[in-house]
Amino acid sequence: MVEQQKHEPEIPYLTRIQVLVAMGATATILWIVAKLWLYFGNVSLFRWHWYEKDLLLGLALGLIITALSGLAYRLCYPYRQSADYYLQLVLSPLALPDLIWLGLLPGLSEELLFRGVMLPALGLDNVAVIVSSLCFGVLHLSGSQQWPYVIWATIIGLILGYSAIISGNLLVPIVAHITTNWISSYLWKMSQLSKMKN
């Protein structure tokens, strides 16, 4: 039987306020980078429209990504270990209502930069999707042993990038990202609360 190792975080454990401030600061920095890139880079923001079908497509994609993530979590031990490390660091200090911000802040700011600005700036082609997805993946690196989580985030970046290009609407990856964050974080948080009661 393989003994599970408990990795101590390379980043010290954070308080609820520190996590919320870090989320807000990261979202603000990404928003500023996106705005500066739009202003100085002569780039147009990827178009987005409030279409009901694209909203539903984003919701469906978010559910699919959440299901795939759950499958990867169950079947791939290195990913499960890496995801638990990352989620423990970010989610443990948060209260359930804080998960609203965990969905909205990254979902809006990361999609604005990586799909909204970077994709058009790099040419709206396969190379643009790959490069923006790699950058998105690296953003989720929280320690030197977190590569399985970075690889997974990169794969999600590819899915979100192609969803933007295929649909022609930035709303799709935004809604998918927010939905995935909300559902995944809620399920993980509830599983941890359940373990604590047992």
UniProtKB/TrEMBL annotation:
Pfam families documented for this protein: Rce1-like
MF (Gene Ontology): endopeptidase activity; metallopeptidase activity
Occurrences of domain CAAX prenyl protease 2/Lysostaphin resistance protein A-like (ranges): 95-183
Domain of life, source organism: Bacteria
Keywords: Hydrolase, Membrane, Metalloprotease, Protease, Transmembrane, Transmembrane helix
InterPro entries noted in UniProt: Rce1/LyrA-like_dom
Nucleotidyltransferase listed as a keyword: no
Spans traversing the lipid bilayer: 20-40, 55-73, 85-105, 117-139, 146-165, 171-188
One BP term from GO: CAAX-box protein maturation
PANTHER family: CAAX AMINO TERMINAL PROTEASE, CAAX AMINO TERMINAL PROTEASE FAMILY PROTEIN
Name listed for the protein in its UniProt record: CPBP family intramembrane metalloprotease
